[in-house]
Amino acid sequence: MSVEIGKVKKILGGLASTQTEREALYKHFHQHPELSMQEHATAERIVKELESSGIRVTRVGETGVVAVVDNGEGPVVAMRADIDALPVKEASGKDYASTATQVDAKTGVEVPVAHACGHDVHLMSLLTALQAFNEHKDQWSGTFIGVFQPAEETAEGARAMLEAGLEQAMPRPDVYLGQHVLASLPGGHVGTRRGPVLSSAFSVKVTVHGKGSHGSMPELGVDPVVLASTIVMRLQTIVSREVAAKETAVVTVGAIHAGTKSNIITDSAELLINTRAYSSEVSEHLKEAIERIVRAECVAARSPMEPEFTYYDRYPLTDNDGDATDTVREAFDAYFGDESCDLDAVPASEDFSIIPDALGVPYTYWGLGGFADMSKAVGNHNPAFAPDLQPTLDRGTEAVVVAASAWLTVPVSAD
């Protein structure tokens, strides 16, 4: 299976003539970001753009959108773009920087919001690719599906779309594709990787209990602050002493909350712990070790109650299918030449793989370089994260079309 470059160039032939309007639409999305599961205006604008292009659209859940371009016999290729933003105040210095705020539906607190992870690039790339395939049906055959997914940042969106009937909204794909703009690749480059590419992750809130007392009489209490401190130190031994050197794992205690006053021994403490791993076996070991260490330290400290564990932000491993990745890499090499490169494993996490895993289809997920000057590039989720407008917008669309075309421009074999 090899991409037909001549057909790809014709499918992408309108990029130059539509550049001004595409950049204006991108700036609109950038200036109007929305929090996870609250992407109502974003979804409505995506639907408006698709319907005006004559593309069949289905709403899935409150803010999910599925677009289907049918074009006769052939493979079914699905491409996903996440559409949510972050509770971050943008500091990119762009003249189109977001100044938006939104009330977080979960907390009731108004927060600044910005596309500090590049999801606006993703949705524009997919939106433009859908329009390109729809306008040039004489160059390909099969079905191209766009999945505009909410709430990647909170690991809710993929599961929410499945629960809302995603399978009924589109044909079963033969392959599921995804991309992410990154600061770790040279600007305009596309990077692929077989196997594990994004880590699995989970967070856990651990509550440990003590016995309150006056700060001058610690012998009458059980100090949960000391208990939490010993847990933090002991957790560091999981990676250094329990995980094999050939494996990769991260255990981070991002917050400790306890107490109100210097001379009061409080009666509980809360730890927020985050983990990363590149295999399900290591991830399960991290979970077991955290619980074992916490329970043991509670016993050692004479804690009067069992600790409590609340798990959240669970992200699966993103483990690229070898054959699908090879197909995309061959197409990228043919079209992009030296700007097609290897992608190192990224320790960030995604809910991208939840949908193809649920559907039982292979997937591959690649990186898109977003900054020409990598010395000035900042990482995703940084308040200053805002990719170069070009060539990022064009290259994101090109990557989607080139990858999908590796299946869709191949002639359908006669039976």
From TrEMBL:
Domain named Peptidase M20 dimerisation: residues: 201-299
Signal peptide, first to last residue: none
Residues that span the membrane, as ranges: none
Any single Pfam family the record assigns to this protein: Peptidase_M20
InterPro entries found in the cross-reference section: Amidohydrolase, Bact_exopeptidase_dim_dom, Peptidase_M20, Peptidase_M20_dimer
Protein name (Swiss-Prot/TrEMBL): Amidohydrolase
Annotated organism of origin: Corynebacterium coyleae
Highest classification ranks of the organism: Bacteria, Bacillati, Actinomycetota, Actinomycetes, Mycobacteriales
